[in-house]
TrEMBL record:
It comes from the Eukaryota. It is found in: Mitochondrion. Its EC number is 2.3.1.200. It comes from Dryobates pubescens. The lineage of its organism: Eukaryota, Metazoa, Chordata, Craniata, Vertebrata. GO terms for biological process: protein lipoylation. This is Lipoyl amidotransferase LIPT1, mitochondrial. Pfam families: LplA-B_cat.
Length: 361
């Protein structure tokens, strides 16, 4: 049963969350199943953050169901119209679209158990379609037919509360998923959590009668049964400041460059660009260290006769300290171009070098 976002939501949420500003009541035991009406990745991640910070303790259990329009979480944006977001849990890169369900299990820290959550999802799938061969691995993935990954997992453990979230591939665009998760970099070194490649398969491929709505309802029903709560899915609007005080500020924080890119773990790139100029190919060695999303060290090696060393040095100095992003590099290159002598040959070489630098980002 689905309840629309209304005063009833506030009454239900008041039993689960502590929000003095909204006048929510004190802790009572119980649970809640919530589904977002938004497909915006920043809004849905903000709701996760909000619930984590406002959950009452004791016996509360919350399941948050959500889907996103095309987005990459904790990864590199490589295609237009695909948003890039950073979540506050750990783990590698995840591709989201409307065919990929997201489940977030909230509880207090002592009762946190991701394996039980994943087993719950498997139970729901088997109740819906008994013929499905699905099981949970020691890596906390869910496999279909013993080889295809249909769910990845990550978690955030706070001092007193915790959440575990996972995905479930129903009918995602696998071509986009595959291309978006392939790193374009060569010679990249980082201490960031690596994404582990895996063969994936949509549940829709196994059973074309399955829909995201059916899967969401089956998981909600299993969750309600297991936690002995009413099987109600409460719809909420993540932009509702009355229901979720301060939520819009959280959304803005998640969209901010300093969060999305500035929190990136330190990494380095050491590569060689093969620049084609007229009838020749020029090898340009590029070494960069990036910290907090900004270029900390930059070295560009190319023949002196191809570009005056002073110009190359000027580019290196201007890039050092700048954001590691194409837009900022374009601004730097354009500014320096205005200072160059009126020489078409020189301008062509300069533009080619800068274009290749931007392709690294």
């Amino acid at each position: 049963m689905v309840l629309q976002s209304s005063l009833k939501n506030c009454l239900q949420l008041s039993c689960i969350f502590r929000t003095p500003k909204a006048g929510f009541r004190s802790t009572t035991s119980g649970g809640l199943i919530i589904q977002s009406v938004s497909n915006d990745v920043y809004e849905n991640l903000a709701v996760e953050d909000w619930i984590h910070d406002h959950m009452n303790l004791e016996n509360q259990q919350v399941l948050f169901l959500w889907r996103n329009s095309p987005a990459v979480v904790m990864g590199k944006q490589r295609q237009k119209n695909i948003k890039l977001a950073r979540r506050k849990s750990g783990g590698g890169t995840v591709y989201h679209d409307l065919g990929n369900i997201n489940l977030t299990f909230f509880t207090n820290r002592k009762k946190y158990e991701r394996m039980e959550n994943l087993k719950l999802v498997v139970k729901a799938l088997k109740a819906l379609r008994p013929q499905l061969d699905v099981h949970v691995t020691d890596r906390y993935d869910i496999l279909l037919d013993r080889q295809y990954k249909i769910s990845g997992t990550a978690a955030k453990l706070g001092r007193t509360t915790a959440y575990h979230h996972c995905t479930l591939l129903c009918n995602a665009d696998k071509l986009v998923l595959s291309s978006i998760l392939k790193s374009p970099y060569k010679g990249l070194k980082s201490n960031a959590t690596p994404s582990v490649p895996a063969s994936v398969k949509n549940l829709f491929e196994e059973d074309p009668s399955l829909t995201c709505e059916m899967l969401l309802d089956a998981i909600a029903e299993q969750y309600a049964t297991q936690h002995q709560i009413d099987h109600h899915i409460t719809l909420i609007n993540p932009a509702d400041e009355v229901l979720l005080p301060g939520i819009n500020n959280r959304v803005k924080e998640l969209q901010n460059w300093e969060w999305v890119y500035g929190k990136t773990p330190k990494f380095s790139i050491s590569t060689c660009c093969n620049m084609v100029y007229k009838d020749s190919v020029l090898d340009v060695k590029v070494d960069m260290d990036i910290k907090h999303g900004r270029i900390e060290v930059c070295n560009i090696g190319l023949p002196e006769q191809w570009l005056p060393p002073a110009l190359c040095s000027e580019l290196v100095q201007s890039l050092t300290g700048s954001k590691f992003c194409p837009n900022e590099t374009t601004t730097v290159a354009t500014t320096l171009l205005r200072m160059l002598p009126q020489d078409d040959e020189l301008h062509s070489r300069w533009n080619l070098l800068c274009e290749n630098m931007m392709m690294l980002m």
